[in-house]
Amino acid sequence: MSMWFYLFVLYFCGIWSFSSSRKHLLVTLLSLEFIVLVLYLSVYFYLCGLNYSLFFVVYFLVFSVCEGSLGLSVLVSMIRSHGNDYFRSYSVLQC
Per the UniProt record, which residue ranges are transmembrane (predicted)? Predict the structure, then answer.
């Protein structure tokens, strides 16, 4: 039962870091990846505890890798077009 408590605490630490860091896009993406890894671990331990097959874990891992690559591509395109990753330097009306 203590493993689930630690995963719960890690998940809310990730939510807290995601909600508190609104200055840089890279820090926001890293906190999202931390949340995805905690969810991956909790799904893995849950399925191992019930003796189910782990095909869902592989699908979850594939989608999380795709999410990470899309986030990095958005980061690279923002840095190439604007020169930094500050959220406050972007205007909503600019394309």
Answer: 29-47, 54-79
Q: Do residues 71 and 92 lie in contact, with contact meaning Cβ atoms separated by under 8 Å?
A: no
* Euclidean distance between CA atoms 91 and 37, whole angstroms: 32
CATH number at residue 39: 1.10.287.3510
Q: What is the DSSP letter of 91?
A: -
Give the chain's domain count: 1
To which H or E segment does residue 45 belong? helix 25-49
**pTM score > 0.85 for this model?**
no
Count of all residues that appear for the chain in the document = 95
Task: Single out the residue of 12, 20, 28 nearest to residue 75, CA to CA.
Answer: 28
Single-letter amino acid code for the residue at 13: C
Give the model confidence (pLDDT) of 6-47 as tens digits: 999 999 999 998 888 777 888 888 899 999 999 999 999 888
